[in-house]
Amino acid sequence: MLADAARTVDAPDVVIAVSRYGERTVHRGGVAPAGPVPRELLRYELGSASKPFAGLLLARLVAQDRVRYEDRAADLLAPGHPVHPAVRAITLRHLMTHTSGLPALPADFYPQAVPRWSTDPYRGYPADRVVRAFLRARPRHRPGTRWHYSNFGVSVLGHTLAAATGTPWEILLHQQVLGPLGLAATLLRPGPADTDATGHRRDGSPVPALDPGGFTAAGAVRSTPLDLLTFLEAHLARPPGPAPADPAAPADQTLAAALAEVVRPVLRRGWRHGHTHTLTWFRHPSPYGPVLFHAGATLGQQVFLGFRPESGLAIAATATRRVRRGVPFVATAYGLLTETL
Length: 341
Known about the structure:
By secondary structure, the chain is an alpha+beta fold. It has 13 helices and twelve strands. The protein has helices at 2-7, 51-63, 73-77, 85-88, 92-96, 109-113, 127-135, 151-165, 169-178, 216-219, 225-233, 253-261, 329-340; strands at 14-20, 23-29, 44-45, 199-200, 206-207, 222-223, 267-269, 275-277, 282-284, 291-297, 302-308, 313-319. The chain has an eight-stranded antiparallel beta sheet with strand order 2-1-12-11-10-9-8-7, sandwiched between helices. A two-stranded antiparallel ribbon has the order 3-6. A two-stranded antiparallel ribbon has the order 4-5. Strand 1 (14-20) and strand 2 (23-29) form a beta hairpin. It is globular and about 55 Å long. It starts with a helix and ends with a helix.
């Protein structure tokens, strides 16, 4: 079944990794010959699938009473700085749930990005520029009234949490999420030689590694399919019966509380508000109970993460080309999650 699904994805490298209550199956495929390093051991660029990591970090800091969801971002990021009243009202929850009223990207992002849109659009927009753009923003809608997907907002969240804790984002994420969950192969920057997957354009040419600039919280995570399964498994309920001894289970109750928090629906969105959204996951109904998922893409790679809490199923799928023709990559992975396994 996984092989059939992988064959529909026109990409040099494809990995579909599945876990059901911790029992794993991994399929490797793709139209290119396999390299010296097994595909499931390479790190892939997650793009927007980095956001569940940011959401879990926020939930854990809240569980530790270090911040609150209703804290105002501008007050934490730049106390006393004059901002528009709508910006003053934006909370950490608004930023994470895409209800801040901010656009997808700052307006002044595009002039510097367009000349290198197909190679390196984010590098020229560093962290301090993201913060300045937020402090002078004029939100399109009153915070909390509309859902609008925003890399800008989640990036501001990352800088705000770093300011609130006095800890750089990369260190904070490692201390609070990556380290406690045992995600040793997950990084926020390129790893040593031959450890990262190479993305490709439609014509097969390689794409340079992503430099996220100041948008680190929104899209900088790189991880292996096996680490991604570990991350997803942490969100899943255990099978019925006595809980087995699990040395990998989170010992810190704030992490357990955060994992429970991020699967809870917090708002409705979509056509006729038919879909729900948690703090960080898209949540849809299925014949097997609710499914939670998030996809991501960079210039030359795509990733899909999803799980079904009620049946202990998790899927991490990666591809080293953005697949737009034929059967789309995300639709293939989503179909496995909602219809067949």
